Amino acid sequence: MKVLLIGMGMVAQTHVLALRDNTAGLTLAGVLGRDIDRTQAFCAQAEDTLGYAVSAYGSTEAALQDAPDIAILITPPNVRADYANALSTSGVPTLMEKPVERTLGAAKEIAAIYARAEVPLGVCFQLRTRAAVQTLKSQIISGDLGEIIHVDMRVPWWRDQTYYDAPGRGTYARDGGGVMINQAIHTLDLGLWLAGPVTHLQAHMQTSPLHRMEGEDIATALLTFASGASGVLSAATTAFPGTAETITLTTTKAQVTLQGDHLRIHWHDGREDATTPDTGATGGGADPMAFTHGWHQALIEDFADALRSDRAPIAPPSEALHVHAVIDAMEQASRSHARVEVAR
After folding, report:
1. CB 41 within 8 A of CB 31
2. Most C-beta atoms within 10 A of its C-beta, which of 181, 200, 218, 274?
């Protein structure tokens, strides 16, 4: 299967490494960028990594003429719509980096574009593929842990000012906001994937004196889940030097802590289970790219298998839209200082 990579941002090299190591028979056939000179230079580097030729494209039309089997769309969210229209019209299944778009309404339209064309769409919530997360998800589905009573999500990350000095970063016009839609969206997605949808919330979001940026660098929320469980969320890019994100589940049978890819379960009957895989950093410190490409590799392989098996990918657009809806509700609640219902 031939893959077209669209965009050459920070995560592009992660995707190149993931494709280099994939076991799903995928090759990076080409890269599409707005600057052909930069695109050609990127392709030359990718060829050194991959060991085979990669085509550089300066236009969407030229890229689609070579009939890619999959597109991986990693552009900033403010330029997604045109690519989504072109790819869906050409019937190219697309794996898209988060966030889908800057606002809930725009994200819904992107998803609708693919749904109307009946073209598969997946979202890069790669943390779902972590081994510990998969183990925990299985135990929740099986009922081993009992009922989830409370969910505690913490994202104590750090970004220095140089990160936000990049043009457009942390703005509403390009990124759609700050820490929630750009960093904590991954942990929020995991919390929702494990515990189910949120129906109502209260929230506070602010920009601290530590950063010069338009969006928020601190966000907190009180959550009510459809299951009846309660939840709290605390996310920041002000927590120097930055540590791994944590999700803690209180259930009727155990206390569960998921920190990065480390899972610990304290059972009420006295047992203790722990998994401590050596996957390194999670991108919570000053270097946002300090994480393994293995999670993206697993996500891309899952997307390819989903296409071959005619099933939904591990992170379908419907679930990504609920993550967007929760973030949208947090923004509403922060502005209104009121409890807000999450859009369905």
Report:
1. no
2. 181
The answer to whether the beta carbons of residues 102 and 175 sit under 8 Å apart is yes
Q: How far is CA 164 from the centre of its chain?
A: 19
Average pLDDT over residues 1-12: 96
Q: What are the tens digits of pLDDT across the range 93-116?
A: 999 999 999 999 999 999 999 999
Task: Pick the closest to residue 66 from 30, 91, 97 (CA basis).
Answer: 30
Rounded CA separation 127/189 (Å): 9
- Chain length of the chain: 344
Q: How many helices (H) and strands (E) does the chain have?
A: 11, 15
The predicted-structure confidence for 32-90, as pLDDT tens digits, reads as follows 999 999 999 999 999 999 999 999 999 999 999 999 999 999 999 999 999 999 999 99
- What does the block give as tokens for 157? 């990350």
Please state, in angstroms and rounded to a whole number, the distance separating the CA atoms of residues 44 and 337.
52
User: 3-state class of 335 per DSSP?
Assistant: helix
Tokens linked to 167:
């043009």
Query: Alpha carbon of 174 to those of 25, 103, 128, 178: distances in Å?
Result: 34, 11, 26, 11
In contact, 130 and 299? CB cutoff 8 Å: no
| Pair 107, 101: CB distance under 8 Å | yes
Q: Do 141 and 185 meet the contact criterion of CB atoms below 8 Å apart? A: no
Question: pTM for the complete prediction?
Answer: 0.95
Report whether the peptide linkage leading into residue 93 is cis, meaning its omega lies within 30 degrees of zero: no
Q: What is the pLDDT of residues 307-319, one digit of tens each?
A: 999 999 999 999 9
Tokens for 91, please give them.
């019937």
Lookup: tokens for 86: 């072109």
Q: Report the SS3 class of residue 49.
A: helix
